[in-house]
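Quick illustration, no need to memorize.
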Amino acid sequence: MRQSFDETTDPSFGAKHLPRVRAKMAEQGLDGLLVPHEDEHQNEYLPAANDRLAWLTGFTGSAGAGVVMKDRAAVFADGRYTVQVRAQVDAGQFEILDLDGGGVANYLERAPKGSVIGYDPRLHSPDALARLKRAAAKAGAELKPVEPNPLDLAWADERPGQPAAPVVPHEDRYAGESSASKRARIGEAVAKAGADAAVLTAPASLAWLFNIRGGDVIRTPLPLGQAVVRADGTASLFLDPRKVTNELPGWLGDAVTLEAPEALEGALDALSGQKVLVDPGQSSAWYFDRLAAAGATVVRGMDPCALPRACKNPVEIEGARQAHIRDGAALTRFLHWVDTVGQQILPDERQVAEALEGFREATGALKDLSFDTIAGAGPNGALPHYKPVTRTIRRMEKGSLLLVDGGGQYLDGTTDVTRTMAVGEPTADQRRMFTLVLKGHVAMATVRFPAGTTGHQLDALARLPMWMQGFDYDHGTGHGVGSYLGVHEGPQRIAKAVNSQPLLTGMILSNEPGYYREGHWGIRIETLQVVTPPEPVPGGERPMHGFEQLTLAPLDRKLIDVDLLTPDERAYVDAYHAGVLAKVGPLLDGAALDWLKAQAAPLK
């Protein structure tokens, strides 16, 4: 569970591993190979055995891609990882390019005419693959499915084993609905989609549908596997037998058949003549190819578990509230520590992250972190997805800022919160920028919106105070969050990028505008919030959704320039702090409680 600060890769990986991959490519008659970050389950966070891009290049970010040609290679990363990718990858071996704005597709448009570029169909969704095939065709190149993967062959002797963490029941008192009820609902959805069965490959869908949790993916209680769910609600669940605990078969019940992964291909072949629902944005091309070869009719559609999973039920929402109260007490003790002990000893980022983890562990309920803590002192805080490692760790410095973004996994909920703290007395500039971020945060927290509104339509609200002053941030404003599942969950999100998914009652999202001054410091304010049901607005005509704040942790008063806040914004901050004191205060005592009372006093 404890966070590691060691680096698992280094820039020498490229020089070591590229020749081995090219040799295996040559054996299969390939001129190139696509190496996505995603694995067979389209995971964002990967078990070590599936982190192919990291092994090839040294790059460990949660989004990226690689292309290997005979005489050149490239690695792609988005704006969150601009600094990290250049530190981790040998630029003499790989051209370092932007993943956004065309990315791999643009690179393939310049591929040599007649070249044959391999791809592993288990690692690419059909939607993503279609874009790449069109790009290669423009260059007169061919994308060819390959099995086995040349990279896997090159890695074989050093590759870690596949994870086999025990799969355990997730009790109904946390899930809020039995698996039998969920399977009946999903079966109806499958039939409504015009299908006889659905193939599920997303680990989060397996965890949600069968009310199980695992430990195959770092910081996320996911079981890797697959399932076939039929329209009558019966299902086959494919899990490595090493993961199956004694209690699992009885928990799943007679309507669910446990199978070994080796039985999956035969189970897909047995769907011959049937209509099978598969998500082309989530499941890999291999499933589509296998089903088509078996004579099944593939029905393309969203994973039927995605929306029900995203819309938390009343039990899950109440669990999230309780998890955030518990987590809020740990956070408040931590913030008190930073503002007292931390200001005196000026700890380094490792000590900061370990202190926060220690306060969370002291709750007695922490199952794991929800992701490795981002503790960014000074310039490191200006890197939105910075992760402290021994090579980069800095100490807190007077006159600068400390940005800490972390979360916990609890049986009743998943948390994710960012707070920015002044070290010593903040400058007027730091207070101004923090308050601009706060104004955007408050706008998103207090917005009312009609049914059918998407996160894309709301995103500008959080940016407007900064836009008006000539500033912006280069990441989304909000991501979905699971219920003792992934800290990043779709399909909902709040971002500039167009997203057609309306925000629905029970969806949990983050609200995290920021500002980053490269080479100096960063600011981010993040809380989690849940979409509330549409309710009438006094004097209005239409019912409106809103957000209920889940995260409970005080803001650094020293960084708030009250003169820049409107009366309504001040009232919101005062009400938020009063709520923190009322809900978290009873779990505190002594100096920490006294500190919180001072932090939660009305702004002056």
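The two ends are 42 Å apart (CA to CA).
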